[in-house]
From TrEMBL:
Annotated source species: Chryseobacterium lathyri
Protein's UniProt name: DUF1320 domain-containing protein
Superkingdom per UniProt: Bacteria
Record InterPro entries: Phage_Mu_GpJ
Region (Disordered): 110-144
Length: 144
């Protein structure tokens, strides 16, 4: 099931314009959405559970993820039709989406997204990590 719905686009682009840029081919729009999702996952994967983020439906989806995913998808759709004539607003919104994703990846912004679970958990509930202590014994002087 796709993450975005048809109504998600209505906030940012008129339906008749969207139909023109996808050339009435829904598979083109679907491919742009998949590319946008993959691009977003590449930034979010280190800190967040991308499987849970993009499997959410309805009101369980994060509004910022929807907003920026639509921006990225529309940018890719415009690039598909005429790469040299992308509207300036789409370039600005695409760059804003990338800047937000970079800030999230660096930890400068903390959106309300499900955190990535610890991968090292074992059946006893521990993390499976070993504690290593470095150091040496105190120095003794043998001089009298």
């Amino acid at each position: 099931m796709p993450f975005l719905t048809e109504t998600d686009y209505e906030v940012q682009i008129r339906n008749w314009i969207r139909q023109i840029i996808i050339q009435r081919k829904e598979d083109v729009q679907h491919q742009a959405e998949l590319a946008a999702q993959a691009e977003m996952e590449s930034y979010l994967r280190q800190r967040y559970d991308v499987a849970r983020i993009f499997s959410a439906t309805g009101a369980g989806r994060n509004a910022l993820i929807i907003l920026y995913m639509v921006d990225i998808a529309i940018y890719h759709l415009h690039a598909n039709t005429a790469g040299d004539v992308i509207p300036e607003m789409r370039i600005i919104r695409y760059n804003a989406a990338k800047d937000w994703l970079k800030a999230v990846a660096k930890g400068e912004i903390s959106p309300d997204l499900p955190e990535k679970p610890d991968e090292g958990e074992n059946s006893e509930g521990g993390t499976g990590n070993q504690i290593i202590e470095f150091g040496s014994n105190p120095k003794y002087s043998e001089r009298y």
